[in-house]
């Protein structure tokens, strides 16, 4: 046995990983990274002879709903002749200041259903807030505000403001001093303004809860009830939702009287026309390759891709941009200005691909989305419905494609059971060509 002469000798510590450096490590896109101009940008061809899209699935013309000249002029500019089912059922009772509780699928025109009556009922000489719309996300607030401004284009004295978190409150205070008649807000930021006494909602006549189920599921029940209690002069309340949850029914029972109930069931006329598929791959790397193959082999001009994590959103966006695709992303941590700029570019088809977390699953009414790709299956099976509902809107055909690994089979089975959807498998043969329903019919 060998003895050590130096009694002060101490065994050297073995290498130990510095946990503080690795624990919170996240993938980040370097700010100084410069991407080349997208070489794979696709521009949708314009066919002047193509029959113009009609959102007619109620049989009722807007002209038959006794609307003002300004509203009709705005609708004609958008080439909307017929109302949707939810619009024809909701507009008349709201015009009479009746309470309404409406359940309707996504993409059926709920914003115009409550927006048109609000604009028709305004007293333009009254400088107080007359209508309040609450929505769960800032994206939905911005969308509603934009749609109402489009509707009021030919009504010059209408003032509409969006109030939401993520934007400097000082600029919103300045906007509120211009005395808007209609406020569109998230519950949290509206609460901040009420506490600061920068807004007075005591004389609101009509209140609307859009995506009511989502708002209550997000934990805004206390804020919503407190806000409704602050409107003693409210004449009616409209609840609009894709599902009728217990929370929505509770709000209806507490705050509505003799409400007109409108239920628009999904059927062949109003159900979103979405062909649903899935592709089985082996691992994450194979998923990324599958995305490239799908984008290259199909004529998609506007594609929305969902991932479950921010890191995956960033990594996939980075990868696609390096390969020359016209792609960008939105997620919870991105600045509001950045998110608005990205969404605007996607809407205007200056951008082909938008990668997002579920923050974009609801509240984005973007027309002509050719396909939704679930890079990751959502953890919540109900979220699958909200994701794919971003395509197949306004009676147009859409594609929903999910990328699965063998570990996702059980999750897929739960989604199929919950949604009762026919989700077909596409063979992963490195030539993933999706045949749309109309193409199949034309071939026969």
Characterization of this structure:
This protein is α/β, with parallel strands linked by helices and 444 residues long. It has two domains: 62-263, Rossmann fold; 274-443, 3-Layer(aba) Sandwich (Rossmann fold). The chain contains 16 helices and 14 strands. It has helices at residues 19-22, 69-77, 85-95, 110-120, 138-151, 169-176, 187-196, 212-217, 221-229, 246-255, 284-297, 310-322, 336-347, 381-388, 409-419, 437-443, and strands at 100-103, 131-134, 160-163, 182-185, 206-210, 236-241, 260-263, 274-280, 303-306, 327-330, 353-356, 371-374, 398-404, 423-425. Strands 3-4-2-5-6-1-7 form a seven-stranded parallel sheet, sandwiched between helices. Strand 3, helix 6 and strand 4 form a beta-alpha-beta unit. The longest helix is centred in the N-terminal third of the chain and has 14 residues, at 138-151. The chain is globular, with a radius of gyration of 25 Å. The model is unreliable at 1-7, 9-17, 19-23, 48-56 and 437-444 (pLDDT under 50).
SSE blueprint and pairings:
Blueprint: H1 19-22, H2 69-77, H3 85-95, E1 100-103, H4 110-120, E2 131-134, H5 138-151, E3 160-163, H6 169-176, E4 182-185, H7 187-196, E5 206-210, H8 212-217, H9 221-229, E6 236-241, H10 246-255, E7 260-263, E8 274-280, H11 284-297, E9 303-306, H12 310-322, E10 327-330, H13 336-347, E11 353-356, E12 371-374, H14 381-388, E13 398-404, H15 409-419, E14 423-425, H16 437-443
Parallel strand pairs: 1-6, 1-7, 2-4, 2-5, 3-4, 5-6, 8-13, 8-14, 9-11, 9-12, 10-11, 12-13
Helix pairs in contact: 3-4, 4-5, 14-15
């Amino acid at each position: 046995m060998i003895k050590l002469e130096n009694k002060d000798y101490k065994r050297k510590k073995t290498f130990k990983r510095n946990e503080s450096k690795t624990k919170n490590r996240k993938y980040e896109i370097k700010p100084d990274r410069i991407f080349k101009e997208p070489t794979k940008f696709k521009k949708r061809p314009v066919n002047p002879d193509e029959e113009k899209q009609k959102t007619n699935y109620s049989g009722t013309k807007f002209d038959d709903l006794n609307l003002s000249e300004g509203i009709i002029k705005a609708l004609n500019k958008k080439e909307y002749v017929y109302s949707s089912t939810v619009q024809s059922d909701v507009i008349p009772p709201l015009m009479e200041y009746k309470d309404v509780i409406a359940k309707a699928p996504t993409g059926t025109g709920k914003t115009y259903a409550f927006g048109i009556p609000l604009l028709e009922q305004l007293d333009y000489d009254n400088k107080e807030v007359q209508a309040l719309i609450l929505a769960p996300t800032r994206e939905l607030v911005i969308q509603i505000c934009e749609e109402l401004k489009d509707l009021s284009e030919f009504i010059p004295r209408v003032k509409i403001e969006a109030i939401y978190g993520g934007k400097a409150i000082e600029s919103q205070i300045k906007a509120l001093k211009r005395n808007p008649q209609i406020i569109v807000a998230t519950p949290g930021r509206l609460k901040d303004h009420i506490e600061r006494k920068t807004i007075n909602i005591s004389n609101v006549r009509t209140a609307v809860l859009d995506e009511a189920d989502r708002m209550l599921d997000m934990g805004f029940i206390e804020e919503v009830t407190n806000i409704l209690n602050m409107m003693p002069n409210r004449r009616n309340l409209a609840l609009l939702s894709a599902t009728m949850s217990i929370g929505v029914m509770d709000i209806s029972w507490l705050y509505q009287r003799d409400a007109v109930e409108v239920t628009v069931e999904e059927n062949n006329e109003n159900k979103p026309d979405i062909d649903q598929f899935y592709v089985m791959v082996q691992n994450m790397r194979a998923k990324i390759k599958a995305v490239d193959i799908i984008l290259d082999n199909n004529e998609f001009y506007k594609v929305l891709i969902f991932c479950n994590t921010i890191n995956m959103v960033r990594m996939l966006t980075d990868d696609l941009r390096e390969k020359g695709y016209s792609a960008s992303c939105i997620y919870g941590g991105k600045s509001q200005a950045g998110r608005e700029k990205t969404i605007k570019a996607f809407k205007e088809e200056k951008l082909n691909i938008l990668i997002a977390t579920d923050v974009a699953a609801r509240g984005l009414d973007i027309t002509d989305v050719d396909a939704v790709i679930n890079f990751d299956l959502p953890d919540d099976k109900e979220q699958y419905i909200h994701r794919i509902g971003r395509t197949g809107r306004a009676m147009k055909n859409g594609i929903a494609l999910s990328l699965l690994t063998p570990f996702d089979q059980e999750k897929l089975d739960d989604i199929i059971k919950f949604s009762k959807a026919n989700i077909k498998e596409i063979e992963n043969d490195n030539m993933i060509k999706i045949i749309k329903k109309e193409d199949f019919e034309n071939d026969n």
